[in-house]
Amino acid sequence: MNSPSVIVIGAGIGGIAAAAHLARRGLAVTVVEKNAEPGGRCGRFTRAGHCFDSGPTLLIMPDVYAAEFAALGAALRDRLDLRRVDPTYQLVFDDGSRLALTSDLKAMQAQLDAIEPGSFAGFLRYLDEGHRHYHLAMERLVNRDFRAASDFFSLGNLPLLFQLKPLARHYRHMSAFFDEPRLKAAFTFQDVYMGLSPFEAPATFSMMPYTELAHGVWYPAGGLYRVVEALMDLARQAGVDFVFNAAVERIDVVGERARGVTLAGGQRLEAEAVVANADLPYVYQDLLPADGRAEQLARKRFSCSVISFFWGVAKAYPQLGPHTLFLADDYRGNFESITRNLPLTDNPSLYLHAPARLDPAMAPPGQDTLIAIVPVGHLTDSGEQDWRVIRDQARQAVFKRLALLGITDLEAHLKFEVDYTPLSWRKRYNLMKGATHGLCHNLTQLGYFRPGNRHPRYRNLYFVGASTHPGTGMPTALISARLAAARLLEETPGR
Prior knowledge:
Layout: E1 6-9, H1 13-24, E2 29-32, E3 44-47, E4 50-53, H2 62-71, H3 76-79, E5 82-85, E6 89-93, E7 98-101, H4 105-115, H5 119-142, H6 149-152, H7 160-163, H8 170-173, H9 181-186, H10 207-214, E8 217-220, H11 225-237, E9 241-243, E10 248-254, E11 257-263, E12 268-270, E13 273-276, H12 280-287, H13 293-298, E14 305-313, E15 323-327, H14 331-339, E16 350-353, E17 368-376, H15 387-402, E18 414-420, H16 422-429, E19 461-463, H17 474-491
Parallel strand pairs: 1-2, 1-13, 2-9, 6-15, 13-19
Antiparallel strand pairs: 3-4, 5-8, 6-7, 10-11, 11-12, 14-17, 14-18, 15-16, 16-17
Helix pairs in contact: 1-11, 1-17, 2-17, 5-10
């Protein structure tokens, strides 16, 4: 293999997109990936005619996807067959009551006022605030690269302290809009996407329920993995080379420069620059020389993890919508158990995805493909967690919750089951602590406070992905890729 100009470690969403950006600008780019297929946490597998997305199961912020695909020279709608999901979620509460989150304002008014009379007015005010937060945050924080403190701590950004409400706790702030705890939960559960509890997340994150309702929740025909396939097509068209089953043992550094990588088999690949899409704390701990920075990262706050169940079912359950979320009355206790790594509660909040409602090809005729996700704490340093026991508790919690919908025979109709625990996430993707969202997004790990996209010493080593700026999630990974690629191009001599 000829020595490439740039080596990208990891073929996750961010790695593929960064490679495509760089190749489109004329650099020779090789992506090395430890697994046999691309996608990282946005994975896929099939069994007995059932197709599963093993990571994200819904597409939000479609305007970001459209902009990032356009930056790669492609029209999103030409690459993906997107189908809008409305209602976005069916929320089910402990008393059996339900709330279908929908962009149909008349339907929302009837549902909300039935739960809390007069609450629709609060809902409209909440959406208005979410609109402001979304557009301000995207323009001033997410789509910007904070390379120096002065980029962030400026007079121009000072009003954001008041406009984005970063110092207000999200759940407590909900009292300005609703009195009913079920409604407060219905419009804050999205904070778990950031790896946070709504009881500690900044009120800024009202932007998430806003974008889901205003811009829509979408599903690509064929599943979320189609996003990976579309990006792979763009990268290969740009000339990117991919090497799979190629685990990186270390990043080779000399002085203040990265010189390439050494693979697990001993093969050395030289490069003018390296882009790491592997989990950032893992990169510092396992791939770079010890210098104290890995320990600093390990002391930061990590996101939660999840236990995921993938079920091939010999029977269809049409009463299940595409996205069903069971929210526990003990909302605070649930999040405390997750964020403080406490034992799983007896009645955890959990999520169920039925992709065949959106694309019948995801399951054999007359059968069902189901994915159940139970948020849990990440791996602790003590290693005292018994994940077999916790997994079995989570499994029974799902069956118990399904009984609220009249489904009591699912276990009897299972053809097979695959499960991922935090141990699985760590093994498959080198995620430190098995934290599925990387570093969490508390106030001191946002914007300039989040690890930057270039190493402070090795000045041709760049980072993309969940634990660097701007943060976790598929759309933000695409932004991360564009920002890191632009910086590399700007700082590469002769470019």
